[in-house]
Design goal:
Layout: H1 2-25, H2 31-44, H3 50-64, H4 71-80, H5 90-93, H6 96-100, E1 108-111, H7 117-123, E2 130-134, H8 140-149, E3 156-160, E4 173-179, H9 181-184, H10 188-198, E5 199-212, H11 217-221, H12 234-243, E6 247-253, H13 255-267, H14 269-276, H15 281-302, E7 306-314
Parallel strand pairs: 1-2, 1-4, 2-3, 4-5
Antiparallel strand pairs: 5-7, 6-7
Helix pairs in contact: 1-2, 1-3, 4-15, 10-12
Length: 328
C-alpha cells in the first residue's frame, strides 16, 4: 500500500509539473496527453523497479521546467552575456588551468564566479574535478541551474559560502582561481590564510581583484554590486599574501584589458536589447542602475584611480604552515 501511495503521489506531482510547463509556454494543458506520456514512460521500464522509474520520470519532468532568471541577473546578462555578472572573456578564462598548472586529475577550486560562464570556460580545459564556492546569495540557484544545464554537475560541485568566515579543508586543492573575493571580503588576512591553508604544498592560485585608494566615488562605482566594496591599496594586498607565507610569482596589471572587455560589452548592449524584443520594467530599472554604476567604475579605471590586478601566488612545496592568522 505504501508503494502504491508513493507512486500515486509521484503521478500527481508529474501532472502538476506538466501543467506548470504548459502554463509557462503559454500552451493549453492537456491532462489526458500528460497522463498518457507519464504512463508510457513507466510502461517502457516494465522490467525495472516501478518506484525507481517513477522517480526518474519525476526528475525528467522537473528538468524540463524553465528556470526563471531574476530581473537583476537578466539585466546583467544583457550587458555582459549569459552566465556572467561582470566583464569576462571565455578564451582568457579557459587559459586559467594552464596558468595555475593543475594536473588533469587535480582538484581545481573556482571562488566567486557569480554565474556559470567562467566555470564552463574553465571546465572546457580542465577535465578533472572542479569545486565552485560562491558567496552571492542572489546568484547561487542560477549558478547551480546553469552548471546542471551544461551537464557538468557530475564533476562540478557548487557550494554557497560565507566569504568572511568559511574555512576550507586543509591541503585539499591543487589550484585556485579567485575572482573579486579580495575586493569584497571585510577581513583579507583570513581569506589569504584560507588560500594558504587549502592549497596542497607547491600548488598555485590565481587571484583577480580591484586595488586602489579610498574614494567617495567608490560608493557610486560599486552601487550595483552584491556586497559593499572593500578596495585596498595595491601594496596592502601584496602584504596580506606575504604575511601568510605565500610566494608571489606574478603581479600583473589587467586594467587596460579589463577596460577593453567592458567597453566592448557596452557597445553590444544596443544590439542585445534589439534582439531581446523588449524587457520588463523591473529589468530595465536594474539595467539602468548597473549602467550608471559601471559608468563611474570605468571612469575610475581609465583614470587609474582603480586598477584591476592578477596575482599569481604559490604555497611553498616544503614549509611548516603558518596556522596563525595575522593580527588585524
Amino acid at each position: 500500500m505504501a508503494a502504491l501511495n508513493g507512486l500515486f503521489n509521484k503521478k500527481k506531482l508529474a501532472l502538476t509539473r506538466a501543467k506548470l510547463a504548459a502554463w509557462w509556454d503559454g500552451a493549453a494543458y492537456d491532462e489526458e496527453a500528460a497522463l498518457a506520456a507519464y504512463e508510457a514512460k513507466l510502461a517502457a521500464a516494465a522490467n525495472e523497479n516501478v518506484e525507481a522509474e517513477a522517480a526518474n520520470v519525476e526528475d525528467e519532468l522537473f528538468d524540463e521546467l524553465p528556470f526563471e532568471m531574476p530581473p537583476r541577473l537578466s539585466a546583467l546578462a544583457l550587458i555582459w552575456g549569459d552566465g556572467r555578472v561582470r566583464p569576462g572573456d571565455a578564451t582568457a578564462e579557459a587559459m586559467e588551468p594552464a596558468r595555475i598548472g593543475v594536473a588533469a586529475d587535480g582538484v581545481l577550486a573556482v571562488w566567486g564566479p557569480g554565474l556559470a560562464a567562467p566555470v564552463i570556460a574553465i571546465a572546457s580545459k580542465h577535465p578533472g574535478k572542479i569545486e565552485v564556492y560562491e558567496w552571492r546569495e542572489e546568484t547561487i540557484e542560477a549558478l547551480r541551474h546553469e552548471v546542471k544545464q551544461a551537464k557538468l554537475d557530475d564533476r562540478v560541485t557548487v557550494t554557497r559560502i560565507d566569504l568572511e568566515a568559511h574555512v576550507y579543508p586543509p591541503a585539499s586543492l591543487d589550484g585556485i582561481y579567485s575572482v573579486d573575493d579580495f575586493a569584497y571580503v571585510g577581513y583579507p588576512p583570513h581569506l589569504a590564510q584560507q588560500v594558504m591553508k587549502s592549497l596542497k604544498p607547491g600548488a598555485c592560485a590565481v587571484l583577480e581583484a580591484y586595488v586602489g585608494l579610498k574614494s567617495d566615488a567608490l560608493k557610486t562605482a560599486f552601487a550595483s554590486s552584491f556586497a559593499e566594496p572593500q578596495i585596498r591599496a595595491h601594496g596592502d594586498v601584496l602584504q596580506f599574501f606575504r604575511d601568510v607565507g605565500l610566494q608571489i610569482e606574478a603581479d600583473e596589471d589587467l586594467t587596460d584589458e579589463f577596460l577593453a572587455t567592458a567597453r566592448a560589452a557596452f557597445k553590444q548592449l544596443g544590439e542585445r536589447l534589439a534582439q531581446s524584443g523588449g524587457i520588463e520594467p523591473v529589468t530595465a530599472r536594474e539595467l539602468a542602475w548597473e549602467t550608471e554604476a559601471w559608468r563611474v567604475r570605468l571612469m575610475m579605471l581609465a583614470q587609474r584611480r582603480l586598477e584591476r590586478r592578477r596575482f599569481v601566488v604559490r604555497k611553498p612545496a616544503a614549509q611548516a604552515e603558518n596556522t596563525n592568522e595575522p593580527a588585524a
